[in-house]
Amino acid sequence: MNNCKRPDLAVAYTHVPAPKSSAAAASQGIISQSMPMAAMFMKNKFLAWFGLLSSVHYCLTADAESSGDQSPVLKLVMALVSLGVCYMNLVFPQPGPADVAKAKAQSS
């Protein structure tokens, strides 16, 4: 019979932390830096939200002692700016092609 209460069968737990991979941190930094810029160039709202979420994740997981990269807060601000650029048409709407044609017809 299997008796789990015997002290000689107990094994002490020793925690081994996972190794920190610099390649994974570098790729996450590149994504959190390039996605907001791509969202601004393409005015793609999905990329802007993805850039914001990846920047927040990078800001929360970045180490303070690794000073070779940009500040995580600066990447977060860049993501917020890209989100603002993508939603700028709600505040300042651009005239569509039908509006431009109507304006030309009225001026002639």
General description of the model:
This is KLTH0E15312p. This protein is mainly alpha-helical and 108 residues long. It has a domain at 29-62 and 69-92. The chain has 5 helices and no strands. It has helices spanning 22-42, 45-61, 72-86, 88-91, 97-107. Helix 1 packs parallel to helix 3. The longest helix is centred in the first third of the chain and has 21 residues, at 22-42. The chain is elongated and about 100 Å long. The N and C termini lie far apart (99 Å). The relative contact order is 0.13. The model has no long low-confidence stretch (mean pLDDT 83).
| % residues in beta strands | under 5%
| Oligomeric status | single chain
Share in helix? 55-70%
Amino-to-carboxy terminus distance: 99 Å
Radius of gyration: 26 Å
Please count the helical segments.
Answer: 5
- Which structural category fits the helices and strands? mainly alpha
Q: What characteristic shape results from the CA principal axes? A: elongated
| Largest sheet geometry | none
Beta strand count: 0
Element-by-element helix/strand order: HHHHH
Mean pLDDT: 83
**Parts with pLDDT < 50 across at least 5 consecutive residues:** none
Protein name: KLTH0E15312p
Short précis:
This protein is mainly α. The chain has helices spanning about 20-40, 45-60, 70-85, 90, 95-105.
Properties at a glance:
108 residues, single chain, mainly alpha, elongated
